[in-house]
Design goal:
It is a single chain. By secondary structure, this protein is an all-alpha fold. 67% of the residues lie in helices and 0% in strands. Helix 4 crosses helix 8. The radius of gyration is 19 Å and the shape is globular. The N terminus is likely disordered.
Length: 204
């Protein structure tokens, strides 16, 4: 709708029926764009994609960021939170995912998905996979370029990671230890998101 409004404001002709024909695709693109913006707000700080003080040239800066992104992806560290009380891995629990996921889905706007009962009880698996897929796609971009090229990350890049990450979540859910732990975490994240939303409604 924003694109169409821009065209009309410029006096450019919009083909009759265009919105109805392409409504779903436009909504998907808008949703993807909004998610990308939300992830980028946290990506540098939460994954420490900082330029090291030892790097003196632009080439060294770029090389350092590429190396950091590669390490996060190749080891799967971008997914892992702190080990649990048994010293076992915490999958899909990185604090970046914890920061981004509730903030995106429980924002204080009428368009956010917190209105649906499912989101009020827990973070759906597909929602977690989608956020993680966007993180994955952006880290791939940093590994390739070493600088912010987020504008070049498109829906297809995210969809490719989404398929793989959805399978990974399914495998975790079938594990007797990690499955229940993941479910508990997603309930906790939803409660955290709803509490923050309630506080925002109270103050505003």
């Amino acid at each position: 709708m924003e694109v169409i409004a821009h065209f009309e404001a410029q006096g450019w002709e919009v083909e009759a029926g265009y919105y109805l024909t392409h409504k779903l695709d436009m909504c998907r693109l808008t949703f993807c764009s909004n998610l990308k913006k939300a992830v980028m707000k946290s990506l540098h700080a939460d994954y420490e994609l900082y330029l090291p003080s030892t790097a003196k040239t632009e080439e060294e800066h770029i090389a350092a960021v590429k190396k950091k992104a590669d390490d996060l992806l190749s080891t799967g560290k971008y997914l892992h939170g702190e080990p649990d009380n048994q010293g076992r891995a915490s999958n899909f629990a990185h604090h970046a995912l914890k920061n981004i996921t509730p903030a995106f889905f429980y924002a204080n706007t009428s368009k956010c998905l917190h209105q649906f009962l499912e989101f009020q009880e827990y973070i759906p698996y597909k929602a977690l996979a989608l956020v993680t897929a966007m993180v994955h796609a952006l880290l791939l971009s940093f590994r390739k370029y070493g600088i912010d090229k987020s504008a070049q990350v498109n829906l297809q890049d995210v969809e490719e990671g989404y398929v793989t990450l959805t399978k990974a979540i399914s495998n975790i859910l079938n594990h007797p230890h990690h499955g229940p732990k993941l479910n508990t975490m997603l309930v906790d994240w939803a409660q955290m998101g709803m509490c923050v939303l309630a506080q925002m409604d109270y103050w505003y």
